[in-house]
Amino acid sequence: MYYYQLSIQYIGTNFDGFQFQPNLKTVQSKLNHGLAQLINGKFTTRGTSRTDSGVHANFQVVKISSENCIFLEEQEKTNILNSLNQLLSPDILCINIATCDALFKPNVEATLKEYRYFFTNHKTIPFTDLQFIANFSRPLDFDKIQICLDALKGKHDFCNFSSMGSNVTNTIRTIDGCELTLINPHQVFPATSLFQFPETISECYQLRFVGKGFLKQMIRHIVSALWMVGSGKLTVFEFKQLLNSSKRDQHSWKVAPANGLFLFKIEFK
Q: The dihedral of CA 225, 231, 236, 237: what is its sign?
């Protein structure tokens, strides 16, 4: 067997998440279809993170296990990437491929994942501007949001900031860093990037979360709860109570829209 580490980017708008699901359009199924046209023999793929429907990835790593060699020389590697990008949807971009160890398990060996959520705080925003940025239309108290961000850092039980549907038995996670900044998205994503932000948006808010792992829709739940605090629908005290408390039957918010969320960075051992 031969083993490879493929780095990709994708726009999640038109996909039902990353991971393969029967009869659904996912990034993994599209990637497998493209690889099948280039690789002779059997192969499997394994992603690092299961991004949800509509969520984007600035950096996702996929392990390919193939019974036949994909490339030997550097020039062949370049040809493989070019050919694969021609076969794939324009919403997926393969940026690098390299050999890796047979024992490499990307979803297990990731030591750091960084997610970023981009949003504006305007009364209205054109629908065409919403592919990569969410908008929260009510006024926000950012001082209160900052207090909650400080409280999120460290190890907590995030059972009240996750969705049902995954088979995890432990809802304790550690957030190593989280911050809110006002940024120019065009400086985060260069003009040559897969992600083309509208020229009309030169400023937006960026919520950045860093940790080893996150629960299902955890980031989107946190973002929505922060908006609730900022708009006065939830107090700072109530937000803090939700950390490390028993699971509530219902959330007092809907998950924040998927379009503002990016899997931005992954680091391995």
A: negative
Return the CA Rg of the chain: 20
Q: Taking the C-alpha atoms of 265, 18, 196 and 189 in order, what is their torsion angle to the nearest 10 degrees?
A: 0
Which three-class secondary structure state does DSSP give residue 85?
helix
CB atoms inside a 10 Å sphere around CB 36: 12
| Domain pair 2-104 / 111-268, same fold | yes
pLDDT of residue 164 exceeding 80, the answer is no
Pick the more confident residue, 243 or 246. 243
Helix locations, 10-141, DSSP H: 27-36, 74-87, 106-109
CATH architecture, range 111-268: 2-Layer Sandwich (3.30)
CA–CA distance, 88 with 45 (Å, rounded to integer): 15
What's the whole-number average pLDDT of the chain?
93
Report how far residue 196's alpha carbon sits from residue 185's, in angstroms, rounded to the nearest whole number: 9
Provide φ and ψ at 63, rounded to 5°: -90, 130
CB 4 within 8 A of CB 100: yes
Amino acid residing at 80: I
Q: Is 112 left (phi over 0), alpha (psi -120 to 50) or beta?
A: beta
Least confident among 80-89, 130-139, 159-168: 159-168
pLDDT of residue 226: 98
Look at residue 199 and give its three-state secondary structure: coil
Indicate if the pLDDT at residue 19 is higher than 90: yes
> Domain locations in the chain?
2-104, 111-268
In whole angstroms, what is the distance from residue 67 CA to residue 44 CA? 9
CATH topology of domain 2-104: Alpha-Beta Plaits (3.30.70)
Instruction: Please give the pLDDT value at position 234.
Output: 95
